[in-house]
């Protein structure tokens, strides 16, 4: 059996915003194309660990920019695939990432998707997929938590049984 796919959004998952500036999470600001992003070192560590049980892929509007900036800034693996999103023609009743996810993963690959902006169409899509699918919704000021990472790890390991 293939390892499950872990689709990773960036903004609100690794690039945090909306946190209390007086008590920021661990991480640092990095300039990405002239825009400051607060990148979480703790989330990067969790993603590196999840790479032991998942195939990682970027699922972000950053597209190829993720591989240009994040491996160097956070010690994440270089060369991870990324999804490419069509500028138009998508079904408006669905989340803007779903068509690209379907094209990338296909209907039979188990996957988990970490994002801060899942909507109802995402939950309906996940429930209707042939393959096992998990959505992990993050808080943009916190990102992927240790508890969420532990749940993902346990889910991926359980799929192997």
Characterization of the model:
- The chain has 161 residues and is an alpha/beta fold.
- The chain has a single domain, classed as Rossmann fold.
- It is built from five helices and seven strands.
- The protein has a four-stranded parallel β-sheet with strand order 5-1-6-7, covered by helices on one side. A three-stranded antiparallel β-sheet has the order 2-4-3.
- Strand 3 and strand 4 form a beta hairpin.
- The longest helix has 15 residues.
- It starts with a strand and ends with a helix.
Write the layout of secondary structure elements.
Blueprint lengths: L4 E4 L6 E2 L11 E5 L2 E5 L1 H10 L4 E4 L6 H10 L23 H8 L5 E5 L4 H9 L4 E5 L8 H15 L1
Helix pairs in contact: 1-5
Summarize this structure briefly.
By secondary structure, the protein is an alpha/beta fold.
Q: Sheet bearing the most strands, described? A: 4 strands, parallel
Q: For the terminal residues, how far apart are their CA atoms?
A: 10 Å
Q: Indicate the overall shape.
A: globular
Class by alpha and beta content: alpha/beta
Q: What is the element string, with H for helices and E for strands?
A: EEEEHEHHEHEH
| CATH class designation | Alpha Beta
CATH topology: Rossmann fold
Radius of gyration: 15 Å
In what order do the strands lie side by side in the largest sheet?
A: 5-1-6-7
| Distinct helical segment count | 5
Count of folded domains: 1
Relative strand content: 15-25%
Indicate the percent of residues in helices.
Answer: 25-40%
Stretches with pLDDT under 50, minimum 5 residues: none
How would you state the average pLDDT, rounded?
94
């Amino acid at each position: 059996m293939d390892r499950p796919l872990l689709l990773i959004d960036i903004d609100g998952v690794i690039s945090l915003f909306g946190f209390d500036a007086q008590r920021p999470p661990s991480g640092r600001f990095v300039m990405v194309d002239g825009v400051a992003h607060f990148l979480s070192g703790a989330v990067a560590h969790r993603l590196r660990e999840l790479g032991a049980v998942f195939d990682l892929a970027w699922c972000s509007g950053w597209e190829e920019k993720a591989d240009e900036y994040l491996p160097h800034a956070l010690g994440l693996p270089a060369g991870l695939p990324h999804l490419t999103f069509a500028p138009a023609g998508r079904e408006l009743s669905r989340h803007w990432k779903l068509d690209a996810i379907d094209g990338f993963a296909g209907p039979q690959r188990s996957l988990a998707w970490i994002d801060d902006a899942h909507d109802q169409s995402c939950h309906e899509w996940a429930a209707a997929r042939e393959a096992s699918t998990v959505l992990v919704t993050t808080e943009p000021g916190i990102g992927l938590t240790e508890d969420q990472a532990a749940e993902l790890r346990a889910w991926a390991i359980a799929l192997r049984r």
